[in-house]
Amino acid sequence: MDAVAQTDIPALTLRSRGKVRDIYDLSPESLLIVTTDRISAYDVIMPDPIPQKGVILNQITLFWMDMFRDMVPNHLLATEVANFPAACAPYAEQLAGRSVVARKAKPLPIECIVRGFITGSGLKDYKATGTVCGHALPAGLVESDILPEPLFTPSTKADLGAHDENITLAKAKDMIGVELCAKVEELSLAMYAKARDYARGRGIIIADTKFEFGQTDDGLILIDEVLTPDSSRFWPAEGYKPGNSQPSYDKQYLRDWLTSIGFDKKPPAPRLPEDVVARTREKYLTAYAVLTGKKLA
């Protein structure tokens, strides 16, 4: 199965090539966003793509955006290649399933992270300070514990290759304003709660996730990816036990493998063995199937 590690559409202007997405200008109002099969860990792009990963991420995002459509507008203008501009037609096979035409927006300079369980960088902060992004937490929490209530813990948005930094709510208010910060906090917590309850009913724990928002002349919209295995931690509910790390349906498996071989979290990244590629792909496919009830063709 061929993977799409990078796209090249000469008829369009490449706006940016990120860790996963290739973004092209279509018009003054719209973009073509292509989710490739690239995968990164610790903000380093791996040299080997994961076949179908981009399709999985895109389809999961479409699933959640549809679920949240009555809560917040999103950037989607077209999701089927047949409805894309004519310049995209010669690349239809490559773009199918992994691309959208999206409305341009001015992204907020923060990532809207919601944590329902204590793990990752939140656990590291808690062990050092007893707090997470300024939120005081009870003593005695252990890795993977459920939090008393979900926390809105924003971070900065780092440039490609750099690391996002957790910030306090006060800092986020300074960056985007008190009123806007309150709005994205409310939306983020509400979307997380709805997704958490839905996923739990299908046997998945959403430990944490991040949302991104943009501003348009018409107001705030939901952009980028939503509740994917790249932007979230998905744990199987069966066998969940606090006190250590959990099995997952996301790229934690890849992070763990990189740690096991002593990767220093700096480029260049090592080549990925075939079994690591296959196992990572399997986890992404499982997340898609369990969450949506569908299987990729």
UniProtKB/TrEMBL annotation:
Family: Belongs to the SAICAR synthetase family.
Span of domain SAICAR synthetase/ADE2 N-terminal: 16-262
One Gene Ontology term of the molecular function aspect: phosphoribosylaminoimidazolesuccinocarboxamide synthase activity
Keywords: ATP-binding, Ligase, Nucleotide-binding, Purine biosynthesis
Top-level taxonomic group: Bacteria
Protein name, entry field: Phosphoribosylaminoimidazole-succinocarboxamide synthase
Gene Ontology terms describing biological process: 'de novo' IMP biosynthetic process
Catalytic activity: 5-amino-1-(5-phospho-D-ribosyl)imidazole-4-carboxylate + L-aspartate + ATP = (2S)-2-[5-amino-1-(5-phospho-beta-D-ribosyl)imidazole-4-carboxamido]succinate + ADP + phosphate + 2 H(+)
